[in-house]
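Narrative progress, year one. The postdoctoral researcher (J.K.) led the effort to move from monomer predictions toward full complexes, under supervision of the PI. The following entry was the first complex the group processed end to end, covering 372 residues in total.
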Amino acid sequence: MKKLLQLFGAFARIGVMTFGGGYAMIPMLEREIVEKHGWASNEEIMDYYAVGQCTPGIIAVNTATFVGYSQAGAAGGIAATLGIVFPSLVIICVIAGILTNFADLPVVKSAFAGIRVCVCVLIFNAVTKLWKSAVKDKAALLLCLMVFVLSVFFSISPVVFVLLCATAGILLTQWGGRGK
Amino acid sequence: MTLYLRLFFEFFKTGLFAVGGGMATLPFLYSMADRTGWFDTLQLADMIAVSESTPGPIGVNMATYVGFATGGVPGAIVATLGLVTPSLMVILIIARVLQAFRQNRYVDAAFYGLRPCSVGLIAAAGVLVVKIALFFPERFAQTGRVLDLFNFKALALAGVLLLLTRVVRPTKSLHPIVFILASAAAGVLLAF
C-alpha cells in the first residue's frame, strides 16, 4: 500500500511539472524515478518511453503504467496511471469552470480569437516536426497525403485510417521491401 | 447515465486508436464533435490552447476538458478514465513480453504505416482550426466577396508567430505558453 501511494505521488508530481507531455516529461521522469526513488535506470526509462510511443494511447500515460507495473504489478500500473492524470483532472476542471463563467465577456472572446491563431501555428509546427520522422519515402508520403485529403473532404472516422494504415504498413514492409 | 457511458466509450476508442501522443488525439476529438454535438470546433480550438498552457500531458488535459464541458466534474473523470483504460490494458498485457514486443517485426511494420497516418490526420484537424481562426467562411458565404473571406489581422499574427517559432533564433526555443499568452494579448489589443 505504501508503495502504491509512493507511485501515485511520484507520478502526480511528474504530471504537475510537465507542460505538454511527450519529450517534455523525460527530465522529470529521470529526476523522480531514477534519482529520487531508484525504481529504474536511465536506460530502462528510455526503453519504457520507446515502447510507450509504439503502444496505443498517450505516451506519458503508457510510460507511467510501465514503471508502475514494474514496481508493484497491475495495482502499481493503475496507481501510477491515476497519479499522472490526477493533476490534469483538478487543474482543468477548475480552469474550465472559471472559463465557462467568463466565456461571454468581449475581452475573453478577443483573447481566445488571438489564441486560436497561435493554436494553428502550434499544430502546424507539430505536423512539420512529426513529418520529418514519419515520412521518409514515397510510399509513406502517399499514405500521408491520402489520409490527409480523405479526412479533409469526407467525414470518415480516424479509426478507419488507423486500421488501414497499420495493415498497409505491414503489407508494404513484408512484401514491398519498404520501411527498412 | 447513458451520457457517461457514451463519454467513456468515445474516449476508450480515442485511447485505443490515437497513436503518437500529444496532438494525436485531436482528429478523434474533431470526429467526436462532428458526431455527438457535445461541443463545437470553436470550443475545441480553445480547449487545445488551455491544454497546452496547463500542466499535464496534452492528451489527458483535452480529455478532461471535453469531459467537463460535456458532463461536469463526473464527465471529466469518466472521460479521463476512458482514455487511459486501453493503455492500462495493453501495457499490462505486453509488459511481460516487453523486449519481444519491441523487436517484433510486425509491430515495427505497422508503425511504418501508422506514423504517416498520424501526421495526415493531425494536419487535417489543423485545417479545421485554420478555417475558423484565419478565415471568415460565414461572412464570405453571405456577401460572396473574396476579400471578406480573409481575416487579415489573424493572418498577420499567424505570419509573425510562424517567424518567431520557426525562424527567429532567440524566440524559437521558447515554450508554447509564451506564444499563447502573447497571442491572447494581441487578440485583446487589436480587438480580434
